Model the fold of this input.
Amino acid sequence: MASGKLLRQLIRSGVDGDDTGFRSISEALIAEERQKHHNLLANDLEKILYGSDSLSSSKSVAQLNLKQSIPVDKERGLPLLELKEPVRGLNEVVLGDTNRESIKRILKEYNREEILRSWGMRPVERVLFCGPPGCGKTISAEALAFELNRPLCIIRLDSVVSSYLGETSANLRKVFDFIQSSPVVALFDEFDALGKERADVAEHGELKRVVNTFLQMLDGFSGQSLIIAATNHEDILDSAIWRRFEDVLAFEYPTVAQIKNLLGLKLRGVRREFEYTKQVTGLFKNTSHADIERILKRAIKDMLLDGEEFLKLEHIQHALKNEKARKKSLTKSTRKTAAK
Ligand SMILES: Nc1ncnc2c1ncn2[C@@H]1O[C@H](COP(=O)(O)OP(=O)(O)OP(=O)(O)O)[C@@H](O)[C@H]1O
Ligand SMILES: [Mg+2]
Done:
């Protein structure tokens, strides 16, 4: 039987109408029963607490009625996160073998969550995505949400980090409360904002406290959401952060085979005059998936504007030229901004 202390607290929270307290005490009670290997009772309690179908079938943003409760930053009144209904599944993402296997494994853990829970275990809850821009971190998070039939919740850490440091911890608390209240795929984007700021800012001690708060919240997280952190700057994350993630997926520029798959995917339904030969895939060496996609879109537009029915290699070459010019002007303007 549950300890008298927890039962007293549970009834007190019910009488006081304290929803958050009721939830966390119930979770502590379930954990206690599980520790005693009363797995069936713990499962039943969990079903009562989260709803009978919460473990196996998930719901959309509208069904969960989440939009109304999006937390905002007190100082600026801006939303701290963005909720999205995922539309692209795993078959819309080109991945290397290792990452595809890792993602399939994560899905398996969630799809067979009940078995794991009946043994007192939980599916993977914290995953780190790292790698250069445009190589599939966000789209992979979307695909995970799509396959799990959950909303995708994107948290941009740079907007959570407030100019008033005390407010940052409060913002983080609001975000964690939100993702704890419903099962979502929570993507903490630009995750390095926390680590980076710590090195730059004079109030080093305060920011360190914010990072520690974040880590404590991660450690204390007991909801059913899958937490993904994404960064382009994995080198500046310290070991305390790395340690928290059970799985790390590295996203890189596509290999020749992946470029071929990407061309097949992004040119689906487009009639073309060329095959995906080495000469063609070679045009996209050292180019991110997102850049390849942009080049292809431009080439297709050119084809349409030229009144042609077939995509020609010249359309691609022309779009590539344009991309090079675009990159050049971007580099120039970045240099100018840096010099100011
Ligand atoms: N591996 C991929 N497979 C298919 N499409 C991709 C892939 N990677 C990127 N894309 C396309 O490029 C777009 C941008 O990619 P995405 O947002 O996933 O990049 P990212 O790694 O999150 O970049 P950033 O670090 O800038 O956030 C996607 O919406 C998708 O259309
Ligand atoms: Mg991204």
Q: What stands out?
A: The longest strand covers residues 226-231.
